[in-house]
Amino acid sequence: MTRARGRGHSAPLCDPARGRSMHPYRTHHCAALGAHAVGETVRVSGWVHRKRDHGQLLFIDLRDHFGITQIVFQPETAPFATAERVRLESVLTVTGRVVARAPDAVNPKLATGAIEVACDTIEVLAGADTLPLEVNSERDYPEETRLAFRFLDLRRERMHANVLLRSQVIASIRRRMEDQGFVEFQTPILTASSPEGARDFLVPSRLHPGKFYALPQAPQQYKQLFMMAGFDRYFQIAPCFRDEDARADRSPGEFYQLDLEMSFVEQEDVFQAVEPVIAGVFREFSTKTVDTPFPRIPYREAMLKYGTDKPDLRIDIECAEVGDIFDGSDFKVFAGAVAKGQVVRAIPAPGAVGRPRSFFDGLIAFAQSLGAPGLGYIQFQAGEAKGPVAKFLDAGRLDAIKERCRLGDGDAVFFACDTDAKAAQLAGEVRTRLGAELELIDTSAFRFCWVVDFPMFEWDDEAKAVGFSHNPFSMPQGGLEALETRDPLEIRAWQYDIVCNGVELSSGAIRNHRPDIMVKAFEIAGYDRSVLEERFGGMFKALHYGAPPHGGIAPGIDRIVMLIAGTDNLREVTAFPLNQRAEERVLGAPSPVSDKQLKELNLQLSLTAREALAAERAEHPEAAPAGADGGD
RNA sequence: GGGGGUGUAGCUCAGUCGGUUAGAGCGCUGGCCUGUCACGCCAGAGGCCGCGGGUUCGAGUCCCGUCACUCCCGCCA
Q: Is the pLDDT of residue A14 over 70?
């Protein structure tokens, strides 16, 4: 295994002030030694990565953050006996002479493979118990084990690299943002609960009995206040907290955003500022291609062509509406549905002709597993149209489908027939699955896009009323006039998403900086002005004292690093993530607290909570008692 | 809150149609080995088959329940 961590300084780590005495731990790190150092007496410290015991000759691969150096032990010396006993992952300091390896003993796979250190003295700084997971292998371990022993997991090559990558990506983002005139500010971590959005994490107030702080779901309101305070361009690598359930691409509890906001800008100005930062970072840390500018795709078009508002553009398949072609046809199922106002979405399957029957049946079963009644399809082969749907369509209709979906000989096409929203969603799922099964995904590229023109309002079927579809503080396109004169469901917002390879990196918006427009927008969504004043009082008040037009976005740092690292799980790029049940297993969060702490906070536990704690204590009597904090 | 998958040695996994003493690799312990670099060879220890109940002459295997992990829906910008 070749380790290439950090920069390979070859200069000795000697402090001149120490004079001739050797540093107690090391003169070089474990990637620093090479042919140039042959003959020197050196000292290295690190972990026992691997051991090869030949009885009368013993090798230890000593590993530190920077790399690996082979230590060789000769028999019948004191260090030999110590080295034989020592377990993997123990921490050693070795002093010895750098010797050149014989030509046939050089290891080209190791950066330091031309030399080895012949051990004179060895000191075991810290022994290691038998390991719950192997540091020196790529083997997969249960996530439970990895998280409980995260300090070991993080010693492993891949995780160590991912954590470093994350740090480097963030440093690069900071540099790029500052180069563009953005200034980094902090915002409060102890803030107020807001009625919109996700469930809050709450922190009880000692000084205000019965009141709570909330951890910020995002610094949204504060960054807008920075704009109102006259700072032109804000950014922050911002921690965000949301008490919602986990997904593979959504950490429970906490995550980080590149939060940014700009004054006196329109949507396109935000794109111009963000695009070079994102494209630049992806290009810097990946060999995959990044095409700029990112295409701008209206929300309606995304739903029609890709069946989702976060399209994976690596898949070269575009869906099309073909309801009009089935209208009045002999294929009564679709014709009848179209007459009722439903739609038919066509999903091309390039080159799918000749696939076994099981391929088509599999897709139908897939559609049914998503709640669809089924999935029609046609195969075009040798000038003929085949399949259960084709015989009900005349030549004109078949040609129309072929033309609209840009199909040729050897291509197939699937049909999703349902209401607009349901057909779009099904088409999107089928498109993604076809991309994978037909191996149409271009894995050598990051394909970004901006999805724009999201609707401002949407029909809430449960409430039987118009509600906000995204952020209520976004500026409606057309401003006050649009709100006063147009059908609310036709009004679009200056609201946008940035999407990469089907992963939503962020959404953002041009904000509504006009209190009069805000009052009108809330009125349309069924909220009285008083709601605005009571629930968003701080923001609403600030808008009355000269708020500049402003807008921004907040791309997810974790997802960016995840994509660059080429993994599909956020926990692979987070040093100490919470598990699915929002627990941190190394230190044991969340944990019970002492009665004294509860009393100070004016909190009492419910019977349910007390019973749960008692049951847990009965099961794990060894668990640490509450309130045993070491300080520092 | 709901659905799917998984649960066998410290770890990764196999275990046939329900049938005798539950296996392999890695790791661990002991022995041998002077040029390895995933060193090699020999031997050994290590199992509440997640837990509880049921069906059966007989359950790792089938059924019910439950717990844990994980993926998804709900939720979430």
A: no
Q: Judge whether A325 and A400 are in contact, CB under 8 Å.
A: yes
Torsion of CA A542, A543, A547, A549, to 10 degrees: 140
**DSSP 8-state code for residue A214:** E
Percentages (nearest 5) of helix, strand, coil residues in chain A: 35, 25, 45
DSSP label of A476:
B
pTM of the predicted model, to two decimals?
A: 0.89
C1'-nearest nucleotide to the CA of A309: B77
Question: Phi and psi for A523 in degrees, rounded to 5?
Answer: -60, -45
Inter-residue long-range contacts of A336-341, CB under 8 Å, 24+ positions, other chains counted: A337/A417, A337/A418, A338/A417, A341/A419
Residue-wise pLDDT for A78-112, tens only, equals 899 899 888 889 999 999 999 999 999 999 999 99
Starting at the earlier edge strand, list the strands of the sheet with A384-386. Answer: A320-321, A343-349, A412-418, A376-381, A384-386
Nearest protein residue to nucleotide B37, judged by CA and C1' positions: A107
Q: What is the ipTM of this complex?
A: 0.86
Half-sphere exposure of residue A490, counting CA atoms within 13 Å on the CB side?
7
Closest nucleotide relative to residue A58's CA, C1' based: B36
